[in-house]
Structures are given as structure tokens and as C-alpha cells.
Amino acid sequence: MAAMSAASMAALNTSFAGQRLNKAAARKVSAKVTTRAVKPVTRAQAVAAPADVSSETVMDCVNTIRFLAIDAINKSNSGHPGLPMGCAPMGYVIYREAMTHNPKNYQWFNRDRFVLSAGHGCMLQYSLMHLTGYPSVSNDDLKNFRQWDSVTPGHPENFITNGIEVTTGPLGMGICNAVGLAMAEKHLAGRFNKPDCEIVDHYTYAIMGDGCNMEGMSGEGASLAAHWGLGKLIAFYDDNSISIDGHTDISFTEDVCARYEAYGWHVQHVQDGNTDLDGIRDAINKAKADPRPSLIKVTTLIGYGSPNKSNSHDVHGAPLGADETKATRENLDWKYEPFEVPEAVSKYMDCSEKGEAAEAAWNKKFAEYKEKYPEDYAELNSIITGELPADWADALPEFTPEDAGVATRIHSQTMLNALGSAIPGFIGGSADLAPSNMTLMKQFGDFQKDTPAERNVRYGVREHGMGAIANGIALHSPGFKSYCATFFIFSDYMRSAMRIAALSGAPTLFVMTHDSIGVGEDGPTHQPIEHLASFRAMPGMLMMRPADGNETAGAYQIGVEQTDRPTTFALSRQVVPNLAGTSREGVRKGAYVVAGPAAGEDCDCIIIGTGTELELAVNAAKELGAKARAVSMPCWELFEEQSDEYKASILPKGVPTVSIEAGSTFGWSKYADISIGRDDFGASAPAGILYKEFGITSEAAVKAAKSLM
Description:
five-stranded parallel sheet, seven-stranded parallel sheet, about 40% helix, single chain, alpha/beta
């Protein structure tokens, strides 16, 4: 490979000073880089060029990453080659030199984490994982990119590919997940590290693009990262100035670095991200030396090496094709066949040996920690393994009808406080609504920059970022039980994060209060209507609407038990009585009989209620007589998981059935002949008046049932 000419380097540097790259000059740019030989990297040392490997081999590593991505995307005839081609140098430095990770044990607790927030460029990560030794991504898997039953899907998916930390794709989501991962590290370090034993010590790296920085949620996460002082979060900004529509200057001209400086981040700029590996190394070292979260803007050429498509949207989201791939091979002097990995690259890139050594050293330290600090060890080990204390569920209280009625949001607070004391990894907070959501754990203080061991999280008015950060915490370690809260209506702000939780199996607890028109005087802007139906329609989400204290306890018990799906709790503002017949065990079934003929017995009609309307259903059934059954249905999803026999015993076919719920009736036709609810927006008035005016009453349920009998 020919060395880069001085003229070509000057042209490249000029482009990185803020102008668009001159394509004619860019086409002449070779991938060759001269690197400085210094000491091999270890965790305690600075990131540096390898002493025992030539600069040619290092550059071959970078180009192998590029061409594995090019070849896989060509073979699948689908994908985004531009980012992997441009980000290959920073990806190489991160995975091979900077990160401490064990490819043979992707679940090792004290590993550094990596998040590709610009998830469309996932062939970068798959190539890096394959080259560094992850068994989950073989060469054949690269050849099967984006195909049916592949472990290399079109965006990173943690539930498909071992070694992927979080599922990314919606831009801006990944950097917020990374904030959650880094926040979890800071919390655990502040809580468990000792002067003579630093047992929690890992970094979170992320790569994000222009699109991530355009999405508002990235700003929410970045603001919190600085406020919390997440000094072990290092985010690389791939500044390639290209989006799907073309050059970003048609819509995105702000100074991103100045914005992050204003947040309180440590900010650097590597002007030549294509060849300046030493610049990337130096930036990482400076980032590690600074107590603030770090943004490293790396200006790159999207599709680097492609003579005719680099620096254009043509290379963003489409294969290079045979002709341009051939031209790129010639331009970068790449002599190898598709998917071929040079032997020297294969040997040098494999991180298995050093990763296993790092884990072994940590395991030894953790054993010493166990001897010195057995109580702290037990709590930390619970968070690491997900093995909760044997009696944690005993902390949840039981209620009788004699207990005073309160809103289910108040019951929720009781459960949160009980679980906070019983479960070491229970942590969470609200989007500036703690006094309304009732989410403070009274036995703990606030997680802040200087008090990271505390467990109340103050997210501020940042619902979208909050949801993604909470997901990151939940996915950091299986023993974390991460909750976040807002008004149910504002789940609209965070729906994308909630959907990703459901898709990726993050067992986040979404605490949603003020769940219906019962909000009252605040009016239709704050009154959920379609929200219950929408989350019931979401695959992988448990949608809980408990009716009283026992059902709220049951809902939380089930939510905490989940390891691979999230739970949303819809909780009331208005007071509800503790009803006879409700139970934690009944909630586990999804629907169960609370009054009237027992399951399996004959009945004349059935009234189904949820949440605050269960009381109306019970009253209606009482009015209809001894053969009328009242059924509580706090969770459709759990009911659908029951046997056909059980479901038929609760809701037998042919029996007139009415549902009553203060929300959209959409979906209820599966269970009820007539559904009482609200299929239009609410209004501003006291809750009692709204229920009467909208016809959501026990009298309406009685009338509907009689019309069917």
C-alpha cells in the first residue's frame, strides 16, 4: 500500500476544518497510517499503539473491518456501509486497544460496555465482535447478515446476539442507554468500592452520529450525564456531515461541541478520524483523565475509501455494489477476497487471552472482597447475578376491606418503599413528578454526582430520555430492578423507549399514575384515553391496571419477577376501596372472580372491571343478583397465558358479558358483548361529574347486562 502524499493529507485536513471534502482529492487518499510504537496497553495504562505489531498490520485491521462490512452488506443486498467504513479506525481503537472485555464471557460483570447508538451501522460492531473473538459472531454469521434466523440482524439486538449490550436503532436511544449503563456503574462504584478494594471499575463507550444528535432525547440524556458527573462515559460523535437526505447542512448547522460544553461535558475534536489513530488514542486518554462525561467528535469521511460514493448519501444506506467495491479495493490496495481475514489480523485482533486474564484477575479480587466485606458482597452479588433475597416478596403487605381506601398510586408508593428495602438492586425515580407519582423511597437519598450510592433518581422533565436511561440501568446487571415514573398521558413522550424495552426484554418497571379521566379538572390534555389499549397492543409488555392494595402488591410482585419483559402500571389519582375478593394470586392469573358465582360455576351474566372501575363492576353485579359474576381483569397478557380451561371457567362462552373501564373500548370486544368506556377525549371537570356525564357508572353496566339477558 502506498503512503499518503503530503498533498492528499493537506486536502483531507482542510476538509476536516469545516468544509465539504473535495471528492477528487478524497479519492486519492490511501488508508495507510504511520503509528508510534509504545508499550502494550493494559487496563492501568494509557491507550497506545502496540509495540509488537507493525503499523501496516494495524491498518490492515482497520481495513478488514471496512471490507467485512462492505462484503456482508453486498451479499445481503441491504445495509449501511458508510458508517462502518468511516468509523473503522475508532472502532478498532475502542475494541482492540481501549476496552477491557472478555469475548469468551460476554456477561463478565466488570467488562467495559459498548453501545452503537447509530445502530444502522451495525456491521461495524459485528465485524469488531468477530475479529476480537466473540463466539456469537462467526464469519458465516457475517455472511448471513440481515437474513432469516440470523444472529446478525439489521440493527444490534441484545436478545439475538450475545455481546450486544442494548438494542439500538431509533436514533438517540442508544446514547441514553449508555447514560443508564454509566449511571449504573457510578452507583455501584459509589456504593460498594472500598479504599483497599475497587471492585467496580468499568467504562461505557458509545458511537453516535449526526442523527443521534438531532434527536431531542440525546440532549435529555446528555444533560443528565453531565449533571450526574458520569466520568466513565466516553461518547464518540461520528461527524461525517451526511444523512439520508444529503449533506447535513440542509437542516443541521449547530455547534454540537459547544452544546455539549454547555451541558458540562469534556469535549475534544479529532479532526482526521480516517487515519489519525494516535489522535483517537490521545483523546481517549484525556477523556479518562477528566471527571466529566466525554464527547469526542471524530470527523470522518462516510464511506471512506470508496472513490465514487464517499462523502455522499449514496453510501449511507445502500450496498456499494460490485463495481464500486472493486474500485474501493483498488483504492485501498486490498488484495484479499470477500470475507477473507488476513492471518496477522486474525491473530492480533483476538482479545480472548487478555480478556480472560482480566476477568481472572477481577475474580481473584472479588473473592478477596467477599472475605473482607461479606455483607456488601452479598448485596453486590445479588445485583450481578439477579438472585434476589429469598424472602423479598414477603415485604409486600396485604389488605382487607377494613383498611382505609387510598389511590392506587399511594399503594404503589407503599410497594416501592417495601421493595427498596428488600431488593438490593431496586432503584428509580420520576420525571419531576415524585410528589404526584408517589415514587420516592423514603429510606434513601437522591442519586447525585456527589451521592452516587443513593437510590432515588431525579430524572427531571425528560420522559423520553428517562425511559431509555432506565432501560440501560435494567440491562446493566440482572439484579437491577429499575423503575421510572410519570403521568400515564406522558407515556406518549417515552413510548419509543417503552417499545424498545418490550422488544429487547429489558424488565423495566414503568410506573404511570393519573391513569384515566379520573384526573378530573386538569382536563383532556392530561387524561389518558387510548393508552391502555395501545400498551395492550404492544408485544412483550405487561400492562397492569390494579384495583386496590392487594392487586397493586400482586402487580409489583409479578413485575419484579420478570427477567425478560417490562411492566407498565396504570395507577389512579382517585381513592379506591380495598375490595373483598381481590388477591395477589388472582392478579397472577390476569383475570379472576372477585364476587358472585365462583370460577367454573354457572352464572347469568358477567361484569368485567379493571382498576378504579372494578368497584363499579362489583356494585353492578350485586344489583343484578346472586347469579351475576364480577371479574377483575388487571392484566390481559397474563390472562391470555392461562390454559383454555381456566379462561373458560372465568369467561365462559355464551354468557352475557359487559366490560367497564374509563378508557378506550378498543379491544374489549374479544371478551365482552358490550363495553362501557370513553372513545373520545375527556374534559375539564371534577372526576365524579365526568364519570356520570360519560356514562361510566354501575347503573350503565346494569342496564347493558339486562339488555343482553
